[in-house]
């Protein structure tokens, strides 16, 4: 049951094949079994069981709230959840219990979804799951063999999402299939009076059409995305995908996004500047961590922030403040903003030339083992991780990673589709067609775990990483 | 018209009409007079002395002071600039704080329409160009009463620019010449107010009250077009009156709704401007002019003694009567300005550019706001001069005193007395009493109706003007009594019976033959003595002019 899509589970609930409580308990037991993965920071077991119970009552009375009623969901720990600790995996916010729900959380709960808990992330989501600033929904999706969808900027409310980079952050949707992503988007999208950057136009829930004919489609393949670091395996899957479209009658053309190579540096300047600004509020006064030093307010600030933030966050705050200094502002921040405009224009030009959707890799390669992963410093790592994804955030476009195949190692590989701004539905329609063609095998976590002989080794590693 | 200027009423300091005399009013240090720079080429300029240090030769080392102002006015609105919290003065600490005001992570700013309209209206009243597109920026600094670590303001592209503020000073020996001056307005920007830090020195604690955090402010930046404390204070007073007339700010300095920072420098005319200092937190109307003048004086003394002026921030110590450097541990601040990413550009429209079918709740039409502009203080004063023949300087006094204009208008409505008479009574007697007892107009025990009734009695000669003054004093003491009641209780009505008065006059003449003799010999003052005696005999109930007529008639017959 846990391996099925949202629609399938929803149908099972409606037909009474399983009750929301049973489903919730299955999830909770899987969460317990996989605890060594540190996937969750907080498991909200009691709340979840209570919500499941209420959902069950609704089903019994025949008053289900819709497709999401009784469906277990997890929310990344940078979305504010009323009464449930929200930490951003930072010491700074340890023990912080928000008094309000993020708009997207509230919308899911209003639909009857059952909140299992808050998932883990890099401190302040500087590289992890469920929100997407530079690729943090699409990259993990690609590595885990699920669909990771980043909606257009302004389509989904950021209210309650603890910001990393306000101008690029978007709540991301991780699901088993493209249709499910569309269902969730339908629930979440739309103007939020609490977020002035959401678009005013009303958005209605929608169902994706099933494409049968792709002959009118034009798929763009950006040549700049063929980088030397791209693994041959991913490159070959990318070519195969392009060929698939072509063989089914779509027009597939090579296109150019000439400013791509400047993107990651530009992203770095803008990202750190906004981070420096956003982190200014964590001073230990109103909420979150506060040190014991009380010699002076300034000393309290310094010690609180030193204790509360890890090296990566501190490093970004320092660089961001450097870029924003009066003497550097023109040379760094303004320049980066101009480059951002050029990057956004690259996409506009390509789409104006008749391209409907761009097809690119999501990541350079499949997931690397932990030992390999920790060899690189955070900056290099995020530069590599986000290489194909962050330009989309700077341009505010919708993009989705769809699992395409397992690598020789048996690990999932995803490909990315990028659409025009606010053409999320068109993008997902193409992604759905592609998903149907490739028939990616559903990841069976249970089987993987049973097969996994090195669980204990992993457990060891996990505890090492915690102590850092 | 008889009413003299109200010299005792601290008019110059607090009024929008400054009275500037030529000499040193300060009695110490450098003599500071206004309007030292001749570049604006007004005729009055020649009458004003340049600022001269006393020890130097006359006119040789003339100094000119240059003063610019940054004025923060709290917007009068129900809720804060970016959150739904209420705005209220003197509420219990931290009782008006939303999640956004406390900077809870994940909260976002939502712009308050009322604050934008207030900014546009103020911009229009101050003849500004209204920017149809303006932007918000973050200004960063760490301070305990700034929860987010930054203030949202409009640094790059403010909502209004290039306006002007006209204010008037009166000059000349009798201070009867009213001259209009203009201070250019560089810009008006919308920004957030900070919270308040309360320092508990005893327990070395700082307590934070966030009630004020996030309240909308209009920052009005005045170009350095002023040259002394009184000009600055007068300009601020005029701005205060304009804001109050518009209703965009209550602009009450005592409640912190209007706060002033001044940029001050001195130089020799014709030479480049000197290094400037910033005097912060001039939050009292009383000390504004004094603080600026004392800083000008200090700078001149420093330079005269061969020292340098540091570009620094200072504050005014009202006990010492001078400015002192402000403790600034962090040294030079770099505010690391950055665009506010959570707020799209603020777009305004006029009737021509209004998008068809736009939701009126979502757009702001500048032309519509222009139509709603109320009468401005300058227009009100012009109206007073035109309609009631008031002297211009009196129109300033009427407007400067809070509530006095309304009081005046209410008296005028209910009395048949001449407007000039009303003006005279209000400016001399009424305002004099208020000042004497340190009361505001709305605290006066004398109501407009009572004063109107009193003036009616006077107008129809039911009482003498001296009796009227007596009634007025009585009104002040015994609240609730009408003038007529007082007149009848004290028997102050004029004797209307001519024969009776005739008899009294005859009796007085008989009792004082020497005075009558002196009169007949041509002593002109003797008749006054007789008039006085008759009045005394009638308990001041007779009209002196009538008495005089009767006496003269009897003596000549």
Automatic annotation (TrEMBL), chain B:
Catalysis: reaction(s): L-aspartyl-tRNA(Asn) + L-glutamine + ATP + H2O = L-asparaginyl-tRNA(Asn) + L-glutamate + ADP + phosphate + 2 H(+); L-glutamyl-tRNA(Gln) + L-glutamine + ATP + H2O = L-glutaminyl-tRNA(Gln) + L-glutamate + ADP + phosphate + H(+)
Enzyme Commission code: 6.3.5.-
Thylakoid is among the record's keywords: no
Domain of life (superkingdom): Eukaryota
GO terms under biological process: glutaminyl-tRNAGln biosynthesis via transamidation; mitochondrial translation
Cross-referenced InterPro entries: Asn/Gln-tRNA_amidoTrfase_suB/E, Asn/Gln-tRNA_Trfase_suB/E_cat, Asn/Gln_amidotransferase, Asn/Gln_tRNA_amidoTrase-B-like, GatB, GatB_Yqey_C_2, Gln-tRNA_amidoTrfase_suB_CS, Gln_synth/guanido_kin_cat_dom
Keywords for this protein: ATP-binding, Ligase, Mitochondrion, Nucleotide-binding, Protein biosynthesis, Transit peptide
Protein localization: Mitochondrion
GO MF term list: ATP binding; glutaminyl-tRNA synthase (glutamine-hydrolyzing) activity
Principal location class: mitochondrion
Cellular-component GO terms for this entry: glutamyl-tRNA(Gln) amidotransferase complex; mitochondrion
Coiled coil: none
KW RNA-binding (keyword) present: no
Residue ranges annotated for the Asn/Gln amidotransferase domain, each copy included: 406-555
Family to which the UniProt record says this protein belongs: Belongs to the GatB/GatE family. GatB subfamily.
Subunit-level organization: Subunit of the heterotrimeric GatCAB amidotransferase (AdT) complex, composed of A (QRSL1), B (GATB) and C (GATC) subunits.
Cited function: Allows the formation of correctly charged Gln-tRNA(Gln) through the transamidation of misacylated Glu-tRNA(Gln) in the mitochondria. The reaction takes place in the presence of glutamine and ATP through an activated gamma-phospho-Glu-tRNA(Gln).
Matches recorded under NCBIfam families: gatB, PRK05477.1-2, PRK05477.1-4
Name this protein carries in UniProt: Glutamyl-tRNA(Gln) amidotransferase subunit B, mitochondrial
Organism: Canis lupus familiaris (Dog)
Lineage: Eukaryota, Metazoa, Chordata, Craniata, Vertebrata
């Amino acid at each position: 049951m846990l391996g099925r899509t949202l629609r399938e589970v929803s149908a099972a609930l409606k037909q009474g094949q399983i009750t929301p409580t049973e489903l919730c308990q299955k999830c909770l037991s899987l969460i317990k079994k996989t605890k060594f993965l540190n996937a969750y920071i907080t498991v909200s077991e009691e709340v979840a069981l209570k919500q499941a119970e209420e959902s069950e009552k609704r089903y019994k009375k025949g008053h289900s709230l819709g497709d999401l009623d009784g469906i277990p969901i997890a929310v990344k720990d940078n979305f504010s959840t009323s009464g449930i600790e929200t930490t951003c995996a930072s010491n700074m916010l340890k023990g912080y219990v928000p008094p309000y729900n993020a708009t997207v959380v509230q919308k899911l709960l209003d639909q009857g979804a059952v909140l299992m808990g808050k998932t883990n992330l890099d401190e302040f989501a500087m590289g992890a799951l469920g929100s997407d600033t530079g690729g943090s929904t699409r990259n993990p999706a690609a590595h885990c063999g699920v669909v990771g969808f980043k909606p257009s900027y302004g389509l989904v409310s950021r209210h309650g999402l603890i910001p990393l980079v306000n101008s690029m952050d978007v709540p991301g949707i991780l699901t088993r299939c493209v249709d499910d992503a569309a269902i969730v988007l339908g629930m979440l999208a739309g103007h939020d009076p609490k977020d002035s950057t959401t678009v005013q136009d009303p958005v209605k829930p929608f169902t994706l059409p099933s494409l049968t004919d792709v002959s009118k489609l034009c798929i763009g393949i950006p040549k700049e995305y063929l980088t030397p670091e791209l693994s041959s395996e991913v490159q070959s899957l990318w070519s195969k995908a392009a060929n698939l479209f072509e063989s089914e009658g779509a027009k597939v053309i090579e296109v150019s996004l000439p400013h791509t190579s400047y993107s990651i540096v530009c992203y770095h300047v803008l990202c750190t500047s906004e981070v420096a600004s956003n982190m200014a509020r964590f001073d230990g006064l109103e909420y979150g961590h506060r040190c014991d030093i009380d010699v002076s307010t300034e000393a309290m600030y310094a010690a609180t922030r030193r204790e509360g933030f890890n090296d990566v966050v501190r490093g970004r705050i320092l660089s961001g403040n450097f870029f924003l200094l009066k003497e550097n502002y023109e040379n760094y921040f303004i320049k980066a903003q101009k480059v951002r405009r050029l990057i956004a224009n690259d996409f506009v030009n390509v789409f104006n030339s008749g391209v409907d959707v761009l097809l690119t890799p999501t990541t350079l390669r499949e997931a690397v083992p932990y030992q390999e992963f920790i060899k690189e410093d955070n900056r290099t790592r995020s530069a590599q991780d986000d290489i194909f994804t962050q330009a989309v955030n700077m341009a505010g476009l919708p993009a989705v990673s769809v699992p395409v195949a397992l690598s020789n190692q048996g690990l999932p590989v995803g490909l990315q589709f990028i659409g025009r701004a606010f053409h999320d539905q068109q993008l997902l329609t193409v992604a759905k067609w592609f998903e149907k063609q490739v028939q990616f095998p559903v990841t069976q976590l249970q089987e993987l775990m049973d097969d996994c002989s090195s669980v204990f080794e992993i457990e060891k590693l996990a505890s090492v990483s915690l102590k850092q | 018209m008889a009413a003299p200027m109200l010299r005792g009423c601290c008019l110059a300091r607090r009024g929008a009409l400054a009275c500037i005399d030529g000499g040193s009013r300060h009695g110490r240090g450098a003599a500071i007079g206004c309007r030292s720079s001749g570049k604006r080429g007004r005729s009055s300029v020649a009458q004003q002395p340049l600022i001269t240090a006393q020890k130097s030769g006359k006119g040789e080392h003339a100094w000119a002071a240059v003063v610019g102002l940054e004025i923060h006015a709290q917007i009068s609105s129900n809720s804060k600039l970016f959150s739904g919290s209420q705005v209220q003065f003197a509420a219990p600490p931290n009782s008006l704080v939303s999640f956004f005001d406390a900077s809870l992570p994940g909260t976002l700013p939502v712009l308050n329409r009322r604050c934008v309209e207030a900014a546009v209206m103020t911009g229009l009243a101050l003849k500004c160009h209204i920017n149809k597109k303006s932007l918000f920026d973050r200004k960063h600094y760490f301070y305990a009463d700034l929860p987010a670590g930054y203030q949202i303001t409009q640094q790059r592209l403010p909502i209004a620019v290039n306006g002007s503020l006209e204010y008037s000073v009166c000059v000349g020996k009798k201070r009867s010449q009213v001259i209009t001056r203009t201070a250019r307005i560089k810009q008006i920007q919308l920004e957030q107010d900070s919270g308040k830090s309360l320092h508990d020195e005893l327990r070395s604690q700082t307590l934070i009250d966030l009630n004020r955090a996030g309240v909308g402010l209009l920052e009005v930046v005045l170009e350095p077009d002023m040259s002394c404390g009184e000009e600055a204070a007068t300009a601020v007073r005029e701005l205060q009156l304009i804001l109050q007339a518009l209703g965009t700010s209550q602009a009450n300095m005592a409640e912190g709704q209007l706060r002033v920072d001044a940029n001050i420098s001195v130089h020799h005319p014709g030479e480049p401007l000197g290094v400037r200092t910033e005097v912060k937190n001039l939050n009292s109307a009383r000390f504004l002019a004094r603080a600026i003048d004392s800083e000008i004086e200090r700078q001149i003394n420093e330079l005269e003694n061969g020292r340098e002026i540091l570009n620094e921030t200072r504050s005014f110590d009202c006990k010492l009567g001078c400015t002192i450097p402000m403790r600034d541990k962090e040294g030079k601040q770099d505010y690391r300005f950055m665009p506010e990413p959570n707020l799209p550009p603020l777009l305004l429209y006029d009737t021509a550019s209004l998008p068809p079918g736009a939701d009126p709740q979502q757009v702001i039409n500048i032309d519509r706001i222009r139509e709603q502009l109320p009468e401005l203080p300058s227009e009100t004063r012009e109206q007073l001069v035109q309609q009631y023949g008031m002297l211009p300087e009196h129109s300033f006094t009427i407007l400067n005193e809070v509530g006095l204009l309304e009081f005046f208008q209410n008296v005028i409505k209910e009395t048949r007395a001449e407007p000039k008479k009303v003006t005279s009574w209000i400016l001399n007697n009424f305002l004099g009493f208020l000042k004497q007892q340190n009361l505001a107009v709305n605290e006066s025990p004398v109501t407009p109706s009572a004063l109107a009734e009193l003036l009616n009695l006077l107008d129809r000669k039911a009482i003498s003007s001296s009796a009227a003054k007596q009634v007025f004093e009585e009104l002040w003491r015994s609240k609730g009594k009408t003038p007529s009641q007082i007149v009848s209780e004290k028997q102050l009505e004029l004797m209307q019976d001519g024969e009776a008065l005739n008899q009294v006059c005859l009796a007085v003449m008989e009792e004082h033959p020497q005075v009558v003799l002196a009169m007949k010999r041509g002593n002109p003052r003797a008749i006054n003595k007789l008039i006085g005696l008759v009045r005394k005999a009638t308990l001041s109930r007779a009209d002196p002019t009538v008495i005089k007529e009767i006496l003269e008639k009897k003596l000549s017959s």
